[in-house]
Amino acid sequence: MKHFIDTIKSTYGKYKVIVWIICSLLLLIFPALIPSNYVMGVVCRILFYATLAGSLNVINGYSGQMCIGHAGFFCIGAYIEAILATQYHINFWVLLLVGGIITAIIGGLIALPTLRMQGIYLSIITLGFSEVVRLIALNWTSVTGGAMGVKGIKSPTLLGFTLSSPKQYYYIFLVIGIVFIFVTNRIINSRTGSAWISIREDELAARSLGIEIKKYKILNFMYGAFWAGVMGAAYAPYTRYIDSTYFSLDEGFNILSMVIIGGQGTLIGPILGAAVVNSLTELLRSFSEWRMVAYAVLIIAMMWLRPQGLVGASDSVLAGDKMKKKKIKVLAKEEK
Amino acid sequence: MGTLLETQNVCKYFGGLKAVENVDMKVEKGDIFGIIGPNGAGKTTFFNICSGFYAPTHGKIIFNNNDISGVSPDKIARLGMARTFQNIQLFKYMSVLDNVKTGFHIKTESTMTDAILHTNRYKKDKEYVNEKSIEVLKKVGLSKYAETKAGNLAYGIQRKVEIARALALDPTIILLDEPAAGMNPNETDSLREFIKQLNEDGYTIVVIEHDMKFVMRSCNQILVLSFGQKICEGTPEIVKADEQVHQAYFGKGIIAGKGLQ
């Protein structure tokens, strides 16, 4: 297995430019290759969830805070877009940013009181927050339309073209996803990113090194919330109709399962997670409710066998004792 | 020379437990200052108060003419105080080099925007950190372990990595919490040399240690704690001769005095 990965790495190193060109070309002409709207729809879901799960991964995977109410942030972004677009006719592209920024501010406000909490306590607060947001969306009828939801959200336009089919939406999600990966990659490799990672790895040590834990935790939460808000704002016109049932706890766990299955603490992890989970959803569609059982089994197996996820950060506390045990086994074998 | 770190009547109570009570300490600039005491004497608690991890219940801590009682650890680190921990707190899964690089956090100031746009400040910071961290590793003699994962190193070397990471803060004072714990006599000897070298390089050092030989040979001043209270402070000779210190370590028995020679 290791040999296999090394071969891939070295081949990639040699033909880096060519690989990149081919990949980007493929991504660009992908919709032309797939005639079926149904398949395109699935691909759009994958792209969409890749970024959404990626934004959760920034919180859970990089700074080690355990947020499980990500659907709440997603919901806020979606409603901001839906309401402002239908009632005030504000441009979609502006609303992407507005949705992200407002969600980030709310994320910061949520992070403030939870700074004293860690682990499971923080998780429960985010869970509660997600439900509170959903219930507000359900009951604040004058603004959110209550159980009726928001109808007739306009499709975005670009240079006079209306983008409405999955094939066109593919490009919107693709561009947002690429921007997300690009920006996040730069942040992770910077001073801010290493502060986040040091908090995940050893909070006590991070504090002794003069890293402002509170500031970086809030910043981390806001950054994750920002992208969840952006994705919410991108999602609302895609479905054209939203109501509070889209943002239940199930949705939060759905996003979380992608992060856990794909891998925490790497940029590629949530993308793979989104691909695996969404493909599985489609494959198991005929089994309806049983697919939830399949997820559950998958998550339990994952936590058991590979807590950092399929392609998660193996060199981190996320992998924890699992890797240690493996190493001891390997060492024992070598000694024999 | 002048006082660098001073505590005045510092107390820390955990509910009814008086972990540290009325401890006065004066660490002169350029000193190697030892803190000793039997198990549970409150040495580490006292350290945690000095470095800001605990706020003192009463009392004042003055560092470099700043009152730092109750100030958060990150601000104290910025003022120039670095510390290590009793049970090594390294980033186990990171390489030694990355561990040290993380230590340069307060020496750099690029923000998220700088990182996204790769501004000059970001590039300068990167360069500075790369250069300096290699320098620190060289100074400490850990260059050959630069790419090794910190958690895979031998215990004694991990301690050194932790000290190297602390040096990255460019501190004026370093607090070492039991640096020789779990080391064999050879490692302890080389650690003593290392600490002496650091001291000669201009770092003031405060060290908690159980190894009497180590403390008596390397420290200029020693503070003895027992049950949270200061029972003695002075040069190794004074401490060796002190009746109360003997009692704290050996009780009022007959063999008192033999262990401290």
The coarse silhouette of chain A is: globular
**The CATH topology of the largest domain in chain B, please?**
Rossmann fold
The secondary structure category of chain A is: mainly alpha
Tell me about the largest β-sheet of chain B.
6 strands, mixed
Helix share bin of chain B: 25-40%
Our Rg estimate of chain A from Cα atoms comes to: 21 Å
Query: What is the percentage of strand-forming residues of chain B?
Result: 15-25%
Number of strands of chain A: 2
Number of spatially distinct domains of chain B: 2
* Percentage of residues assigned to helices of chain A: over 70%
Low-confidence stretches of chain A: none
Quaternary structure type: heterodimer
Structure description:
The complex is a heterodimer of chains A (336) and B (261). Chain A has 336 residues and is mostly helical. Chain A has two domains: 1-33, no CATH class; 41-254, no CATH class. Helices cover 75% and strands 1% of the residues of chain A. Chain A is built from 15 helices and two strands. Chain B starts with a strand and ends in an 11-residue tail after the last helix. Chain B has 261 residues and is of the alpha/beta class. Chain B has helices at residues 43-50, 73-79, 96-103, 112-117, 120-140, 155-167, 185-200, 212-218, 236-241, 243-250; strands at 3-14, 17-28, 32-36, 58-63, 66-67, 81-83, 173-177, 204-208, 221-226, 229-234. In chain B, strands 6-7-8-3-9-10 form a six-stranded mixed sheet, sandwiched between helices. In chain B, strands 2-1-4-5 form a four-stranded antiparallel sheet, with helices on one face. Chain B folds into two domains: 1-80 and 173-229, Rossmann fold; 91-170, no CATH class.
